[in-house]
């Protein structure tokens, strides 16, 4: 949000004052620190926080004609039109109080929100038709709740109006409903009020008015008059106010309860950073939530935006009615989630803006707009598809997200949120969605006579949250303090380097006129060239080498990892016809790195999905499936060892070959190629060069979606076997593919996985000097299948994410690196480990790349925990990547046109390197011996101007040939 817009917004809100104070919400959240504010908050709720779960009568009770119950508008509505299902039986809670009570007790909630079926108590809607059996049902329910020490939160009206009132009076369209509803409420207060401390008069009047009497989506399904919803809403407000005053005057003095109305809302974000867009967002909320909230919480008037746009279509309150309506709520009862957001808000109420599902911002807006009321979230949650049973990862992670947002609202934003209600207790009839979705924490088997209830994973999760009263800080969540060992490797990685094989120094062959008698300036003489210099190119001639080495040096790293281009170095596939010019460039680059005290780490072949990077002949001949390819790779490796091995002491044969797009047959040949290259170095070059060789595997972490479920631990292990163990186990372990991988494919009757013959077994096993991983993110996996997530049929796992994670676009999950490193330790003991690439995507235009700063700090901190706390033999860490030019969106350097920009993350990374980790503030500094020069006698190139003149004098003009500026070694004189 621009500064100009912020000033305009401040002026607007100051001028408007309450009730438009909520307009500051968008500006406030746009200024919060990113991504720190998006990070998960580990903390707990206030001690008296209300943990609740809820249901609605028509959704779960069933028994629609049992024991004298009258018909409701939903009984009629579900039998009309093209509707396929009814709530006649629902979850049959009427006959299963004991099962519901058991579920409530298992959850450990403090409150249970349920609604009274008006037509079960008054079959025709009026007191004269009182049904004692129906009334006793609720007496019994409240009594059983008291026995398990759970407080009832009772809703008088949750959409199921007695059909008789609809038929005889026209339902809520008739103002007479105000007195009728008041009388019904009076009976309920008399009958149940001594045991009820929280009352909700009406649930979601927006849906009742707009969709019951406007769009016809819900009962009673009326859609004949576009202005009718506003008259219905008017009556609902007056009915609520009448009931509040009734309770306040006659029942509150002895029952000491609180009463409100449940208002539901979406959230909405501006489509443009203009004040007009913010006003449209405000207006959208006013048309949904403000329609009912402003009259009740502010001044008995409808929002100005509604009055301006609807004009005479919107009823008005008289002065007496305004006084009757205003301030008639003891707390703000807020509903949020699937029923309204993303389902029942159409585009006409979005006013061109973008709907979002952000409970935290909505809570802040309510707090600002309505004078900081105590807010009780009386309905919140998501849903899963109707065929989902007890594993509901989507529901669980949305529940986690909403609870986490409520916690931030309390702790960070200062909003007084007094309670949270997960919706719902059990699966039931989901209104216009019928049984197509499930929202229960408990699965209901509708095909069993007793409607068997089973806890879902979301129920287990919610119970754990309640037991801990939130998300308490755990030791593993706290940042670690300490340092890495003195000789820890700090590096930066790049997929490739900039290559310009034409020397950029000594390349100006122009002839100049030097005007010594006037201004002394040089003027280029067109059409004349000096003869070329008779010498071979030197490393000093390549400006690209100097520039890249200087950029790497500024980061403060001691290692640099990059990849060679096999197809360019050996274009024919025959090392006898290698590209010596390119080899010379790579030789210069690695030598200059050493002279800058930076150790080169060189990858022979970097796997990319976009191109194979194999020499053309191999690329056209089945690539890695060609059994000649490993031999060709080994020959190529020997060439590189021979030509570059003097400067390179750390080699990666294959970088990230374990891509899921690679077939098992291709992978087998890649393993052979790596092994051949390793043996070639071990046998022919290690004795003289003393370097190390291994391969680098892509290893994003895989976490069970339900960490408390044994059933999801196996899928996570399976994915790691197939993604990482596939290449790791043959080399670092048994010399064969993982046992779990083979057994799983055997179950599928698959013959895809090759078999190691005796020669290949001995060839591959043990071909490593260290374990290198590239790690970027973490995924969740579960064996439960849900259509909204990626499902891998072959492994029978569903991939998903935690909705509380920071996204960019992959999840930012620092602790995943620690778990990945521990996986390596547990599998392969004390093997030396290098994190060869670790980085995050961020908009290249963000030079203050706060996400990358956050990412590097926290991932390196998790690496420190793995080293200091877990005993992982971690030898080094490489940030990815050097610059955006070679690795777009990942760079520590940015670029605008030709100008190189140092991003904030580079400075922060350099600071971590300088301190060798995260030392305790004020502690004694780490004492480390100075690092030895990796190349004794090597000299770093420094800038030295050298001017050579060949002068011809005539008529006062000097003709000068060849003005030269080049780089020479410090302390050395080079003559040509």
UniProtKB/TrEMBL annotation:
GO CC, one annotated term: plasma membrane
Organism: Takifugu bimaculatus
Main location: membrane
Xref: PROSITE patterns: GLYCOSYL_HYDROL_F1_2
Membrane spanning residue stretches: 946-969
A GO molecular-function annotation: beta-glucosidase activity
Annotated membrane topology: Single-pass membrane protein
Keywords: Cell membrane, Glycoprotein, Membrane, Repeat, Signal, Transmembrane, Transmembrane helix
Lineage of producing organism: Eukaryota, Metazoa, Chordata, Craniata, Vertebrata
Official protein name in the record: Klotho
Subcellular location: Cell membrane
Keyword Repeat found: yes
Stretch forming the signal peptide: 1-17
Gene3D superfamilies, per the entry: Glycosidases (3.20.20.80)
Family: Belongs to the glycosyl hydrolase 1 family. Klotho subfamily.
Alphabetical GO biological process terms: carbohydrate metabolic process
Organism domain of life: Eukaryota
């Amino acid at each position: 949000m621009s500064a100009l817009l912020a000033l305009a917004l401040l002026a607007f809100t100051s001028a408007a004052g309450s009730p438009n104070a909520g307009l500051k919400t968008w500006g406030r959240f746009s200024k919060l620190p990113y991504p720190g504010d998006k990070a998960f908050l580990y903390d707990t709720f206030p001690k008296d926080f209300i943990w609740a779960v809820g249901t609605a009568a028509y959704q779960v009770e069933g028994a629609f004609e049992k024991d004298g119950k009258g018909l409701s508008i939903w009984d009629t509505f579900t039998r009309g039109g093209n509707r396929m299902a009814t709530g006649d039986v629902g979850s049959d809670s009427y006959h299963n109080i004991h099962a519901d009570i058991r579920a409530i007790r298992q959850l450990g909630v403090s409150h249970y929100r349920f609604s009274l079926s008006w037509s079960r108590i008054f079959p025709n809607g009026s007191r004269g038709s009182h049904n004692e059996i129906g009334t006793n049902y609720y007496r019994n329910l409240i009594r059983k709740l008291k026995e398990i020490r759970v407080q009832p939160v009772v809703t008088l009206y949750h959409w199921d109006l007695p059909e008789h009132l609809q038929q005889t009076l026209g339902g809520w369209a008739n103002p007479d409903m105000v007195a009728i509803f008041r009388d019904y409420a009076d009976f309920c207060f008399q009958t149940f009020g001594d045991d009820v401390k929280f009352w909700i008069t009406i649930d979601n009047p927006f849906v009742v008015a707009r969709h019951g009497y406007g769009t016809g989506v819900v009962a009673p399904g009326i859609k004949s008059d576009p202005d009718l919803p506003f008259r219905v809403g008017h009556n609902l407000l007056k009915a609520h106010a009448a009931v509040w005053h009734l309770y306040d005057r006659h029942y509150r003095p002895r029952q000491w309860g609180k009463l409100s109305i449940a208002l539901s809302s979406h959230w909405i974000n501006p489509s443009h950073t203009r004040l007009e867009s913010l006003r449209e967002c405000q207006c959208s909320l006013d048309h949904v939530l403000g329609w009912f909230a402003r009259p009740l919480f502010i001044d008995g008037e409808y929002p100005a935006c509604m009055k301006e746009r609807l004009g005479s279509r919107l009823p008005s309150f008289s002065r007496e009615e305004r006084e009757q309506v205003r301030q008639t709520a003891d707390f703000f009862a807020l509903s949020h989630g699937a029923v309204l957001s993303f389902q029942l808000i159409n585009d006409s109420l979005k006013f061109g803006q973008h709907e979002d599902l952000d409970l935290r911002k909505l809570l802040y807006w309510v707090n600002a707009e309505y004078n900081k009321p105590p807010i009780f979230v009386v309905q919140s949650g998501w849903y899963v598809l109707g065929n989902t049973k007890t594993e509901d990862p989507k529901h669980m992670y949305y529940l986690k997200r909403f609870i986490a947002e409520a916690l931030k609202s309390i702790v960070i934003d200062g909003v007084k949120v007094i309670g949270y209600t997960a919706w719902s207790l059990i699966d039931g009839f989901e209104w216009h969605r019928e049984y197509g979705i499930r929202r229960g924490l408990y699965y209901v088997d509708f095909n069993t006579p007793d409607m068997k209830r089973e806890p879902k994973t979301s129920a287990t999760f919610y119970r754990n949250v309640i037991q801990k009263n939130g998300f308490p800080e755990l030791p593993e969540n706290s940042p670690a303090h300490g340092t890495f060992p003195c000789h820890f490797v700090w590096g930066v990685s790049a997929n490739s380097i900039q290559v310009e094989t034409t020397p950029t120094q000594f390349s100006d062959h122009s002839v100049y006129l030097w005007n010594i008698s006037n201004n002394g300036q040089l003027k280029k003489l067109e059409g004349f060239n000096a003869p070329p210099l008779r010498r071979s190119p030197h490393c000093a001639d390549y400006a690209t080498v100097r520039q890249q080495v200087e950029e790497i040096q500024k980061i403060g790293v001691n290692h640099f990892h990059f990849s060679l281009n096999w197809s360019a170095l050996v274009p024919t596939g025959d090392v006898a016809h290698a590209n010596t010019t390119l080899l010379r460039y790579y030789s210069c680059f690695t030598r200059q790195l050493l002279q800058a005290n930076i150790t080169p780490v060189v990858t022979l072949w970097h796997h990319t999905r976009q191109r194979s990077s194999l020499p053309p002949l191999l690329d056209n001949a089945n690539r890695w499936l060609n059994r000649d390819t490993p031999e060709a790779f080994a020959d190529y490796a020997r060439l590189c060892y021979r030509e570059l091995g003097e400067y390179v002491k750390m080699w990666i044969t294959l970088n990230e070959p374990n891509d899921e797009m690679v077939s098992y047959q291709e992978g087998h040949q890649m393993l052979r190629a790596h092994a051949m290259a390793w043996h070639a170095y071990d046998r022919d070059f290690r004795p003289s060069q003393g370097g190390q060789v291994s391969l680098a595997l892509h290893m994003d972490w895989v976490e069970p979606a339900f960490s408390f479920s044994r059933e999801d631990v196996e899928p996570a292990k399976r994915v790691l076997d197939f993604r990482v163990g596939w290449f790791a186990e043959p080399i670092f372990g048994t010399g064969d593919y993982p046992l779990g991988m083979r057994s799983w494919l055997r179950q599928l009757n698959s013959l895809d996985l090759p078999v190691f013959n005796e020669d290949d077994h001995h060839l591959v096993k043990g071909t490593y000097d260290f374990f290198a991983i590239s790690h970027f993110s973490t995924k969740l996996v579960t064996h439960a299948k849900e259509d909204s997530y990626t499902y891998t049929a072959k492994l029978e796992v569903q991939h998903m994410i935690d909705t509380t994670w920071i996204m960019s676009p992959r999840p930012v999950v620092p602790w995943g690196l620690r778990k990945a490193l521990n996986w390596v330790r547990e599998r392969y003991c004390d093997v030396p480990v290098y994190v060869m690439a670790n980085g995050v995507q961020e908009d290249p235009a963000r030079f203050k790349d706060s996400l990358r700063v956050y990412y590097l700090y926290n991932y390196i901190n998790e690496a420190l925990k793995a080293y200091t706390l877990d005993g992982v033999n971690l030898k080094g860490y490489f940030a990815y990547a050097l610059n955006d030019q070679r690795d777009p969106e990942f760079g520590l350097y940015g670029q605008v046109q030709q100008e190189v920009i140092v991003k904030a993350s580079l400075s922060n990374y350099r600071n971590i390197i300088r301190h060798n980790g995260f030392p305790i503030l004020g502690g004694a500094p780490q004492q480390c011996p100075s690092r030895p020069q990796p190349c004794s006698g090597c000299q770093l190139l420094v800038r030295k101007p050298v001017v050579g003149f060949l002068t011809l004098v005539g008529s006062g003009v000097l003709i000068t040939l060849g003005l030269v500026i080049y780089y020479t070694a410090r302390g050395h004189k080079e003559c040509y």
